[in-house]
């Protein structure tokens, strides 16, 4: 059985950035989601905007947008992409906060890493801003939910 070909490794197994120069520029959309589980007390404080550090979801939105724009600085072999849009949606649920990100670009490669980065940093920001209230929060279920190439 042969091993799968990894696009980020050359024939010698050395890490490399994938060459996308021959690919056409296309409009690309990627959606990702994640979840941060919180205590019922934290959920109520989020709903009432009573977290001592301030407006958690607004700060998380800004942090996520900034992070998405710097994805190629964080992920070593990731291509730098011009983001046309990054949108975040937060849903406060009974057991935590659902986080969804949509990234749009016109580029030669996909934009899923930007959406994943946005969700991850949004969750980390929520954690940071709520940790004085809730030390048992759990971040998880971060995944790509949709990729579109037009």
TrEMBL record:
Residues 17-148 form the Molybdopterin cofactor biosynthesis C (MoaC) domain. One of its GO terms (biological process) is Mo-molybdopterin cofactor biosynthetic process. InterPro entries: MoaC (IPR023045), MoaC_sf (IPR036522), MoCo_biosynth_MoaA/MoaC (IPR050105), Mopterin_CF_biosynth-C_dom (IPR002820). It comes from the Bacteria. It is an enzyme of class 4 (lyase). Pathway: Cofactor biosynthesis; molybdopterin biosynthesis. GO terms for molecular function: cyclic pyranopterin monophosphate synthase activity. Keywords: Lyase, Molybdenum cofactor biosynthesis. Its EC number is 4.6.1.17. Catalyzes the conversion of (8S)-3',8-cyclo-7,8-dihydroguanosine 5'-triphosphate to cyclic pyranopterin monophosphate (cPMP). This is Cyclic pyranopterin monophosphate synthase MoaC. It comes from Luteolibacter pohnpeiensis. The lineage of its organism: Bacteria, Pseudomonadati, Verrucomicrobiota, Verrucomicrobiia, Verrucomicrobiales.
């Amino acid at each position: 059985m042969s091993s799968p070909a990894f696009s980020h490794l050359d024939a010698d197994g050395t890490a490399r950035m994938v060459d996308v120069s021959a690919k056409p520029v296309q409009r690309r959309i990627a959606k990702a989601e994640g979840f941060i589980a919180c205590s019922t007390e934290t959920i109520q404080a989020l709903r009432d905007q009573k977290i001592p550090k301030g407006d958690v979801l607004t700060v998380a939105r800004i942090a996520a947008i900034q992070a998405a724009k710097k994805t190629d600085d964080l992920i070593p072999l990731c291509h730098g992409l011009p983001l046309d849009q990054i949108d975040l949606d937060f849903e406060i649920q009974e057991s935590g906060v659902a986080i969804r990100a949509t990234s749009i670009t016109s580029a030669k490669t996909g934009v899923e890493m930007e959406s994943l980065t946005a969700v991850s940093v949004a969750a980390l920001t929520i954690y940071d801003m709520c940790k004085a209230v809730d030390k048992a929060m759990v971040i998880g279920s971060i995944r790509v939910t949709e990729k579109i190439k037009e």
